[in-house]
Amino acid sequence: MIIVMKKGADKEQLAEVKKQIRELGYKPHVIHGETRNVIGAVGDERGKSVLQAMESLPGVESVVPILKPYKLASREVKPEPSTVDLGGGVTVGGGQLVVMAGPCSVESEAQILETAHAVKAAGATVLRGGAFKPRTSPYSFQGMEEDGLKLLALAREATGLPIVTEVVNPRDVDLVARYADIMQVGARNIQNFALLKMLGQLDKPILLKRGMASTIQEFLMSAEYILAEGNRRVLLCERGIRTFETATRNTLDISAVPVLKEQTHLPIIIDPSHATGHASLVPSMCYAGVAAGCDGLIVEVHPCPEKAASDGPQSLRPAEFAAMMAKLREFAKVAGKEL
Amino acid sequence: MIIVMKKGADKEQLAEVKKQIRELGYKPHVIHGETRNVIGAVGDERGKSVLQAMESLPGVESVVPILKPYKLASREVKPEPSTVDLGGGVTVGGGQLVVMAGPCSVESEAQILETAHAVKAAGATVLRGGAFKPRTSPYSFQGMEEDGLKLLALAREATGLPIVTEVVNPRDVDLVARYADIMQVGARNIQNFALLKMLGQLDKPILLKRGMASTIQEFLMSAEYILAEGNRRVLLCERGIRTFETATRNTLDISAVPVLKEQTHLPIIIDPSHATGHASLVPSMCYAGVAAGCDGLIVEVHPCPEKAASDGPQSLRPAEFAAMMAKLREFAKVAGKEL
Amino acid sequence: MIIVMKKGADKEQLAEVKKQIRELGYKPHVIHGETRNVIGAVGDERGKSVLQAMESLPGVESVVPILKPYKLASREVKPEPSTVDLGGGVTVGGGQLVVMAGPCSVESEAQILETAHAVKAAGATVLRGGAFKPRTSPYSFQGMEEDGLKLLALAREATGLPIVTEVVNPRDVDLVARYADIMQVGARNIQNFALLKMLGQLDKPILLKRGMASTIQEFLMSAEYILAEGNRRVLLCERGIRTFETATRNTLDISAVPVLKEQTHLPIIIDPSHATGHASLVPSMCYAGVAAGCDGLIVEVHPCPEKAASDGPQSLRPAEFAAMMAKLREFAKVAGKEL
Amino acid sequence: MIIVMKKGADKEQLAEVKKQIRELGYKPHVIHGETRNVIGAVGDERGKSVLQAMESLPGVESVVPILKPYKLASREVKPEPSTVDLGGGVTVGGGQLVVMAGPCSVESEAQILETAHAVKAAGATVLRGGAFKPRTSPYSFQGMEEDGLKLLALAREATGLPIVTEVVNPRDVDLVARYADIMQVGARNIQNFALLKMLGQLDKPILLKRGMASTIQEFLMSAEYILAEGNRRVLLCERGIRTFETATRNTLDISAVPVLKEQTHLPIIIDPSHATGHASLVPSMCYAGVAAGCDGLIVEVHPCPEKAASDGPQSLRPAEFAAMMAKLREFAKVAGKEL
């Protein structure tokens, strides 16, 4: 932490800041500049927010954090990339490119089975499908809940694909965990810390979606909540951030892939469906994600998008998905990944 | 809902769109334009997301929603402003300007009592204080939990001020409701729909904070979740949105006040502390909020900000708060509010 | 400037960074932290971008600027607020609240004269009107150009109000300066440095509008371009920034007022018309701006907004403007300004 | 254009809106909805801003544009992709992937020649280099101006590479055009319409960079300014947009590539250097851009980034560039482009 003093701050103010730094268990180190003084506070950065509060002291202009606040998620603690076993022989974070595909919502047995078989045939290795749907409107379809989970389990039995599905309410963690191979945390719950802590105590991989307004640092802090509870199987999912652009539903922050690769050892998944909101934009964003170095994709596929209960406009038809997968295989190969 | 056809879409495509509109229970109405056709779908807009899915049909360029998706929150359903009784003789939404003040976190009996007496003496009519703290970092102070609630109750007893405090986890709703007069939903939980639904079944006023990336429409949709469950006592709180500007913690969206006043009957509270992140900016934003027409303010006050466990830099000292209140009284009078 | 070394950076890398700092004319000052080293570079910060380039050196994690890059605009150089004489007995930056009002575009003699008389009668002290219009579409009305300037001069003669009008092209600076009392730089030209430099050599007040995506620091750097050329009469105008919110045209960054008041001595004007884009939102934003401490307002007024050649939806009718001014007078008084 | 009436708007208000629509030369077409009426205005959409002004009429809730405001840039006017001859046998927009590379600023003969030879050897086909530099600070290096242009011409002579360089001031268009093969418009000048109009009258390809806060639609409208003047050789360059994320200098909007490919026939270039601001992130963003379907890249390369006069942190060293190009060749092949 660096404390920048105001130009013209006097000796007493400087002394007071140094005293407070010492009281908080840090060692002050003053750099006397030409126009103002700057004080480094040396020590273990736990209790950081308390140092930040020194901005309230007279003569202090600003307090600048130097260190990254996450630990377990960082490359500094674990330099080599983490690989996570997802079940069904699928591993993410190594040489395998994982493609998770399926409908936004589970709607019926026929729908989920048809989709599961289709995406498996095209090369997907995980089945996605929502049973608990967090919807902006209370009047929108909210998901089939446990019945949806049962249908997902049926589709897993039929295809052998492990399943990923979202859990929304801490109360439902046990229920969803009985069915799911991978537990998904949606973008809206990125700072639902009660949920994150419960998932940190689970023995299941967690697919954590970045919030629409989460900085990369905050995203890693949310992952840290899960890791700190003991669950080290966290997959980070970039799914678009909120910007001023309206041509797409969100803006896919593709550069988050190399930034995260530098900062964390956790595997990185790209969700081009929620990022763009339009099926026609999905294939090129899949290719871009893989070229950028991601470890996997999660893609919405629906047998009849114009009748989908949710997210129809961004869902690929099975034939479109298969065509995309064929081209993706070539890009994956150049990126050094196997599909 | 307006469906815009692509230039060059053929008759069969148009016929298919009309057919689908009818199947979904709407009446299609075609406007033949010079370069393309546009189809209005007339009917009750429930099931809106399904119409949106028609974007997937061949020949369709875009689907443009026309109606606002919220109902109970809207001025159309209830033209006159709602007033909400907060307890202790305090009513918000009418001629009274409500000022909620207190520390970010409850830290000790001495701290909360000192603050409560100070803010009451300066004219605050509600005491704020956090017992469950959703923090970005798992290593930061997470609040005193039930012990904090007990201290808040003690401060209420000592001062007569009703208390507002945040609930984070659906599991804790009953616990917090045993102590709080007003239940706060923080910005991070704006789309924690499980929490919103539980609060909708409660007989307590809810202070709902806008998410950092919530549009005003989404904000009202979150309020709609509470209203739709039967609880009509919702207070909307603008607390800054996330933008590219870094001089402030968030950007206070002051124009949300008149926008909300046009669209909804619910009372509007401004939180200048979280919006700006710096105590020196808080007083002028209080004045601006009142001049813009808000019904209340929620302000962080701490007896010793440089030692605060959370949000020190944005907390006013009691004397600063009292000075602000004196000037605020004058602005409130011009705005037609009593303080 | 603070250079943060990577954890594990070796002695040679540290030595190289120190060597480079010295070569650039700064004095390195190392703070040995628990997990990594941090180096302060002490010296005159001119040539700052060169220090930033040290991020390219092996072992360097990041380079953190400490000092504000503007000088002449800063409170540190000039602590007391600047007052600027606008002509016609109008001074901004002191006790007087300046209200600039008029149509977006000058459209005809009748239109500008009617508006000028109306806004003067309501208490405006400067007349605004666009003759050169930078429009997003090449097919939109681009302004009356010199004919428009002549009509503005006519309106000045008729009312005594000094006039503010936009200059878009460096080529037109002399032409516009022959007519205008105050030269306006629009938001789109905030980093049109050629234009800023020319205006810096002029003996006229400049109304500089913040860009839609300018940080406050960049805004001040653009002012610095004008100041550095010798023209000290710069008025800063906050007119909304671009965010994800679509209910308003832009988001009025009201907290920019106190932030700027802390950082600069230059007067601050609020433009609620471009910020909101809707006439019904303008009055409350005028009140908020004044309560926040601004020195003036610039407001669009048109005798017949539904027929305006540009920006009709955000223009007040003369009667609406007069009603707003009556209430504004009361808020101004509380804010310690005379209107 | 769709005019949405307020719920409860009366017959007279509806009649007035219809009358105004007819007066403006459009044909009104009313759809009577269940809760409100909606009016389509059929006709040539020129004069669009005037229709927008109808929002000011009593009883009107909102005015919703349906048609895209650009014409010449659109796929509807020209369905097949445009190819642009850049000189030196280089064509963009067809099967060739164009890589433009070189330093941010031209600094010396040795620097530009060394870089030009290096990037050519690695496979670049256009040399970039700035002679007029728009810098945020007036105290930063502003470019070598005409001397820089002369050095670029020298480098072209030495290597045969056509050169792209930025023009900032309309006054300098002729000067820059005497040296440059491709004229660059920087992000800060995206709405410098005086400059765009002059470039529209030039017989040279224009590389138009998207503004930091430009929507894709506004970006195309700026291109339309050039096209409407007669110059059809416009290259669109996505270089990152401004968002809340601070880990990167800007956020590369990679989905702009497929969106633009759907909407316009103009070639699309990606600038990963300005988008990310960090050299280590550039290669993966080059790969992502090509996988997403862009027609070219523009990349900053400097022989000694830590001593660069501008943008050092985002410049690749020649060896890093060569390594990137080797891998890029493989991705380009999969994307169906030749490098």
Please tell me about this protein's structure.
Chains A, B, C, D: InterPro entries: Aldolase_TIM, Class-I_DAHP_synthase, DAHP1/KDSA, DAHP_snth_FXD, DAHP_syn_2. Chains A, B, C, D: Keywords: Transferase. Chains A, B, C, D: Its EC number is 2.5.1.54. The structure is a homotetramer of 339-residue chains. Chain A is α/β, with parallel strands linked by helices and 339 residues long. Chain A folds into two domains: 2-64, Phospho-2-dehydro-3-deoxyheptonate aldolase, domain 1 (Alpha-Beta Plaits), CATH 3.30.70.1140; 84-334, TIM Barrel (Alpha-Beta Barrel). Chain A has eleven helices and 14 strands. In chain A, helix 3 runs parallel beside helix 4 and helix 3 packs parallel to helix 11 (318-334). The mean pLDDT of chain A is 94. The interface between C and D is large, with 53 and 52 residues.
Number of helices of chain A: 11
Tell me which protein chains meet in the greatest interface and how many residues each side has. C-D, 53 and 52 residues
Name of the CATH class of the largest domain in chain A: Alpha Beta
Topology pattern of chain A, helix = H, strand = E: EHEEHEEEEHEHEHEHEHEHEHHEH
Q: State the total count of DSSP E strands of chain A.
A: 14
Low-confidence stretches of chain A: none
Helix content of chain A: 25-40%
EC number (chains A, B, C, D): 2.5.1.54
Protein name (chains A, B, C, D): 3-deoxy-7-phosphoheptulonate synthase
GO biological process, one term (chains A, B, C, D): aromatic amino acid family biosynthetic process
GO molecular function (chains A, B, C, D): 3-deoxy-7-phosphoheptulonate synthase activity; aldehyde-lyase activity
